[in-house]
Q: What sequence folds into this?
């Protein structure tokens, strides 16, 4: 893998462990010379992972809609910053630039991005690894719901098993790299 798209919050959340694991993920990506593709913002977990990747001299590519540039103030010190017209364009370009995907804790936008690439994988548009960094059990209830969806016949077991789920970044990167 040359680049991983990371989906995460534009807020930091209330638990310090979210920030800590974000920093560890950046270190793990840089140590394997894997670049970051992300939403292009300079706030929240997005800004933390981008800043740490840059501090460690990693490649950081941001993709952000013009409207979000106006609202969030895009990160200006990135390796590359792509400004697009819509969220749809953002998600498509992030997927195109990436060899895999990781969801960290985040809100509705993070879930939207995760589920879109999960759907694309299910439909055969890509076969890239899809990871969830389940920091401090953040995604436990969502994962339980996905198991329910599968048990009730709405998601094939092999699709559910395509999700690589780990509680720490080192194990997640290792598992996705296989």
A:
């Amino acid at each position: 893998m040359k680049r991983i798209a990371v989906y995460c919050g534009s807020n930091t959340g209330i638990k310090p462990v979210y920030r800590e694991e974000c920093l560890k993920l950046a270190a793990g990506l840089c140590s394997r010379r894997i670049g970051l593709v992300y939403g292009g913002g300079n706030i929240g977990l997005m800004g933390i992972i981008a800043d740490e990747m840059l501090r460690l001299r990693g490649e950081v590519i941001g993709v952000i809609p013009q409207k979000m540039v106006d609202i969030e103030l895009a990160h200006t010190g990135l390796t590359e910053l792509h400004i697009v017209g819509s969220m749809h364009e953002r998600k498509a370009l992030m997927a195109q630039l990436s060899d895999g995907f990781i969801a960290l804790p985040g809100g509705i936008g993070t879930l939207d991005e995760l589920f879109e690439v999960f759907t694309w994988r299910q439909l055969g548009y890509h076969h890239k690894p899809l990871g969830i960094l389940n920091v401090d059990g953040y995604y436990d209830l969502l994962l339980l719901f996905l198991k329910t969806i599968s048990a009730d016949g709405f998601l094939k077991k092999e699709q559910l098993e395509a999700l690589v789920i780990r509680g720490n970044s080192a194990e997640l990167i290792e598992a996705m790299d296989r």
